[in-house]
Amino acid sequence: MTSSARPDHDPRAWCLALTLAFWLVCLIRLGIPGTPYFDEVHYVPAARELLVLGEFTNREHPLLGKQLLALGMALLGDGPWGWRLVPTLLGALALYAAMRALWHATQSRFATLAYGALLATGFLLYVHARIAMLDVFTIAFLALAFWQCAGAIREPETGRRRLALAGLALGLAMAAKWNALVLAPVPGLVFLGMRAMAGRRRLLLSRRGAPVPGITLLEAALWLGLVPLLVYAATYLPGFWFERGAIGSTTGPTGLIDHHLQMAGMQAGVTQPHPYSSQWLQWVLNARGIWFLYEVIDGAQRGILLIGNPLTMLLGLPALAWAAWRGIARREGVPLAVVGLYVLTLGFWAVADKPVQFYYHYLLPSMFLLAALALALDALWQAGRRWLAVLPLLASLSFFAYFYPILSAAPLDGEMAFLQWAWLPGWR
After folding, report:
1. What distance in Å separates the CA atoms of residue 21 and residue 31, rounded to the nearest whole number?
2. DSSP state at residue 226
3. Cα(250)–Cα(49) distance, rounded to whole angstroms?
């Protein structure tokens, strides 16, 4: 946490305004295409089955994301807006919560708003907020959890409420997609490490010392350990009520445990090569994208390409190096934490027992990459080099505007129109 005797004025209203603008842009052409595309073909049918508790399908992933899709369908009907409106809301939540987390960590208006601008124009969050997939739910709940944890450290008088909400969010993140498992233990482990380093004589029951005075280690274990597990387990309740393939009917008497063993086997069993598969080094270099859509549909040639912003994905790499130096040389916790979380979330995929991987797995590491870039730009701003700090933000917005037609399924000029944006072979 960065301390300041004269913290900046809280930019909460600006965070809300930026979030609202992002959400409204997400709504443009949300109903196009009018049929499920890319991995929607798996998750939309699974959500339909949830609505009627018919057949338990798409068993390899947890249930919560499909429950949220089913909620949208129940409210707005089984159509494009019903499939995709809830993801837009969770995408907006991810943006707002990420900004609030960085605000509590740094109390810097510029860093907070720069981070929001980078996320909103970074391509990855925008594309995921407009498709009925599971990743945006995981990102939103993780961002909410980290916001509440940072807020608890900054404002210990709200610590109990915030840690309870963080635990709830961590459980929901894991229940949306297992990608959250790599980060879910981090808040609890950080609390344990900081309290142990405080040298309290009664480690479990002392209420004094970092990171949240007033909260014992035992209570933190409740909020950040037990509550997430209980919330995660509770999201599987509908799985016992399906008419066909319910938990317990196909997994034996141990029910939920056997179901998880089956899920793990299905995850590891995906070995068939895929034309869009990629590896972590390609993600870092932004060298391999995925065309979620490219066909004549809804009366025009349209495309949706998942890549990162060509500018900020690369600028973020030296920013990570700067953040590592800043954290080590000046003993600043926030830059060092951002680097550590990036390495953790990317390194997981470098060693994961999942032979077929895709660029959308970089969504979570990219959140920390752009946080490092926001911190680097904030250092320029604080040093008086304000034009140099603002220029990348304007350039990021310009890149977003240029690529907007193939991020939002706009009508294109023909079958070969993609060549205007496919600058690298891996983007074709």
Report:
1. 18
2. I
3. 17
CA dihedral over 420, 421, 424, 426, signed as positive or negative: negative
Residues 339 and 86: their CA atoms lie apart, in Å, by 31
- Measure CA of the first residue to CA of the last residue in the chain; give whole Å: 42
Q: Please answer whether residues 364 and 142 qualify as being in contact, where contact means their C-beta atoms are separated by less than 8 angstroms.
A: yes
8 A C-beta contact, residue 126 and residue 403: no
Closest-CA residue to 69 (of 148, 164, 147, 177): 177
52 CB-near residues (< 8 Å, 6+ apart):
none
Can you spell out the DSSP letters for 357-368?
--GGGGHHHHHH
Residue 412 CA to residue 36 CA, distance in Å, equals 20
Amino acid at 256: L
Closest CA to 341 of 113, 112, 180: 180
Beta strand 300-306 pairing with 290-297: antiparallel
Q: How is residue 194 written in tokens? A: 């900081």
Partners of 302 in the beta sheet? 295
The residue among 176, 138, 154 whose CA lies nearest residue 101 is: 154
Which of 307, 256, 310 lies closest to 63, judged by CA?
A: 256
pLDDT of residue 206: 83
pLDDT in tens, 126-139: 999 999 999 999 99
Helical pair 227-234 and 159-176, crossing angle rounded to 10 deg: 40
CB proximity list for 351: less than 8 A, separation 6 or greater: none
At 311, give phi and psi (nearest 5°).
-85, -55
For 94-135, write each residue's pLDDT tens digit.
999 999 999 999 999 999 999 999 999 999 999 999 999 999
pLDDT digits (tens, 9 = 90+) for 144-174: 999 999 999 999 999 999 999 999 999 999 9
Token readout for 32 is 């196009």
Beta strands in 137-261 (DSSP E): none
Which of 421, 427, 383, 381 minimizes the C-alpha distance to 117? 381
**CA dist 332 → 88, 324, 326 (Å):** 35, 9, 6
**What's the predicted TM-score (pTM) here?**
0.95
